[in-house]
Amino acid sequence: MNEIIVVEGRHDYQKVKQVLPEANILITNGSAIDMTFIEQLKRLSEQHDIIVFVDADNAGERLRRIISKHIPSAKHAFIERNLSLSSNEKKVGIEHADGYTILEALKLKRSAVSGSDITPHFLLEQGLIGENESRLKRLFLCEKLRIGYVNGKGLYQRLSLFGITEQEVEEVLYGYESS
Predict the structure, then answer these.
(1) Ranges of the chain whose pLDDT falls below 50
(2) How far is 4 from 26, CA to CA, in rounded Å?
(3) In 44-73, which positions are buried (b, 16+ CB within 10 angstroms) versus exposed (e)?
(4) Measured between alpha carbons, how far is 68 from 81 in angstroms, rounded to an integer?
(5) In the chain, where does the domain assigned CATH 3.40.1360.10 lie?
(6) Dihedral over Cα of 60, 65, 71, 73: its sign
(7) Are 122 and 166 in contact, with CB atoms under 8 Å apart?
(8) pTM above 0.85, yes or no
(9) What element of type H or E holds 5?
(10) Residues facing 49 on adjacent strands
């Protein structure tokens, strides 16, 4: 396996190892990531694909941004928040997801690419920002595109990061209008 999966903590590590025993996994030890770790990832990224696989919470998003900034070639795997909730629904994390969900997320990882024609005006036209129902539409869109839920500003950045086009967004939102 020529991939290195980056997770936040040891419970995430144990869960991914349980599902993929042969996987190469590195732990950030939480959101307090330091430059030594980033430098290690940079060196590893020269010969391995780096897959950022962090929790669907603020700390995870912070890690995703930091790693993406320093390693633009990093790939990203996402698990929907509702599929990574603890049994009491108070905590969110990869360690709470089932094996199938983890495998699917890693199989459907995304790479950063260029070529998005998305603009903030387009997001407004589509009702993804600035309306009462915008949050629900964004949630639907993010789940269907498997890019992790983000707010309006984050949506613009995330769609641009992955090169998602207006046409792709419109096709997904057609399903929202039909439901």
Answers:
(1) none
(2) 7
(3) bbeeebbbbbbbbeebbbebbebbbebbee
(4) 21
(5) 1-112
(6) positive
(7) yes
(8) no
(9) strand 3-7
(10) 3
Measured at the CA of 29, the angle between CA 23 and CA 155, to 5 degrees, comes to: 85
Cα torsion angle, 154, 12, 75, 80, sign: negative
Confidence (pLDDT) at 176? 82
Q: Which CATH architecture has domain 1-112?
A: 3-Layer(aba) Sandwich (3.40)
**pLDDT (0 to 100) of residue 179:** 63
Report the SS3 class of residue 53.
coil
pLDDT (0 to 100) of residue 12: 94
In sequence order, which ranges of the chain are alpha helices (DSSP H)?
Answer: 10-19, 35-45, 58-70, 99-107, 120-125, 134-145, 152-161, 166-178
Per the CB < 8 A criterion, the answer to whether 154 and 139 are in contact is no
Q: What pLDDT is stored for residue 85 in this prediction?
A: 79
